[in-house]
Amino acid sequence: MKLHFKKSYFIYFIVLFITEVLIAIYLKSGFIRHTFGDVLVVILIYCFVKSFIDIRPIPLALSVLLFAFIIEFLQLFNFLEFLGLQHNNMAALILGSTFQVSDLVAYSTGSMLILIFEKLKH
């Protein structure tokens, strides 16, 4: 694992970030907001890290998945309330506020798509 800058992954990150922002602004409910957005967020984090660190796809995809799972499980324990951020809309948007098993499935799907993309790329 070494530091480097990969422009292609950074461009993917920027496109995904803009997509996530547009979803958050314009879609307040539905499949795209609640499921597709969760699939994309795992890919977004992967692309951000991959932009700066040279790391193999499987360890990074699993690390991002674990991170997403940890954030999701923290929602079971009212993590925002513990931090005193339960009324902060941005914190709730970024960290989430309710635990859902479907989110875990979406994160897993995003991780699988990363691995499929990386396999097809090589």
From TrEMBL:
The lineage of its organism: Bacteria, Pseudomonadati, Bacteroidota, Flavobacteriia, Flavobacteriales. Coiled coil: none annotated. InterPro entries: DUF2809. The keyword Transmembrane helix applies. Pfam families: DUF2809. The chain crosses the membrane at residues 9-27, 33-53, 60-80, 92-117. Keywords: Membrane, Transmembrane, Transmembrane helix. This is DUF2809 domain-containing protein. It comes from Hanstruepera neustonica.
